[in-house]
Write a structure and sequence with these properties.
about 260 residues, alpha/beta, Rossmann fold, 6-stranded mixed beta sheet, 4-stranded antiparallel beta sheet, globular
């Protein structure tokens, strides 16, 4: 396998929980926390599509948010293209494109083009270069016909495509995608998977880490996958290897039920 594009070692994330007034009075210096990640180890090779599967609350999205520097880890280390997410966040942000929550991260009254131009300005992309990238990427994803329509008029599939265009605007080495086929019909999801593999990885040599609940995403698109539950990785490998682990009791019945 190529040198790692993403490397995670003993990663822990705990979130502080709120306390009611009575608890604060009784124990003023006590704290309560919930563990989202509990010692995660993960490595994603360059030019690989790696999938994270597991039930809601398993820690998958928290891991993505740490990798794209939106959330700080409590303990452990994580690097993207060799850059540490805590000590070198600006370099990490230059290396990644992420699509975590498409519907709630665009301005509904603005057109697709206006949304992308705004994002480009936030990332210090010059206007001429931004126009070139918007034209290139919307053509690549078949979105040119709708780029000057308001985002509010977009279908779920078009919203997902615009989210991917935004993630690709800076021509990143690594893409972090959170359930990108969630709202797509089977035909659109299959087209999306083909684009990830055939264009982004095979032609453009991108590395993709994808959170998904879709068996089709995992089996048809990913080179390797990992199963997560309760903040830990319980099994990892190729689809055939992980499916074997499920049959052999390598994951909990609760997790296996989601697969």
């Amino acid at each position: 396998m190529n040198a790692a594009a993403i490397s995670v070692r003993s990663l822990v994330k705990r979130f502080a929980l709120s306390r009611d007034l009575g608890e604060i009075i009784r124990r003023p210096f006590a704290t309560r926390s919930a563990t989202a990640l509990d010692g995660v180890d993960l490595e994603v090779g360059r030019g690989e599509i790696f999938g994270l599967l597991g039930p809601n609350g398993a820690g998958k999205t928290t891991l993505l948010k740490i990798l794209c520097t939106l959330v700080l880890p409590t303990a452990g280390d994580a690097t993207v293209t060799g850059c540490d997410v805590v000590r070198q966040p600006s370099l990490v942000r230059q290396a990644i494109g992420y699509c975590l929550d498409t519907e709630r991260s665009f301005y509904f009254r603005m057109t697709g083009r206006q949304n992308l131009e705004f994002f480009a300005a936030l990332n210090n992309i010059e206007s001429d270069r931004a126009a070139e990238r918007i034209a290139e990427l919307t053509e690549m994803l078949g979105l040119s016909h709708a780029i000057d329509r308001r985002f509010a008029t977009y279908s779920n599939g078009m919203q997902q495509k615009l989210g991917l265009v935004r993630a690709l605007m800076t021509d990143p080495h690594v893409l972090l995608l959170d359930e990108p086929t969630r709202s797509l019909d089977p035909a659109a999801a299959a087209e999306f998977r083909h684009f990830l593999r055939g264009t982004l990885v095979d032609k453009l040599n991108k590395t993709i880490l994808i959170v998904t609940h879709s068996l089709e995403d995992a089996s048809e698109c990913c080179d390797r996958i990992a199963l997560m539950g309760q903040g830990r990785i319980s099994a990892s490998g190729t689809w055939a290897e992980v499916r074997g682990a499920i049959r052999n009791g390598g994951t909990s019945a609760h997790q296996a039920g989601h697969l």
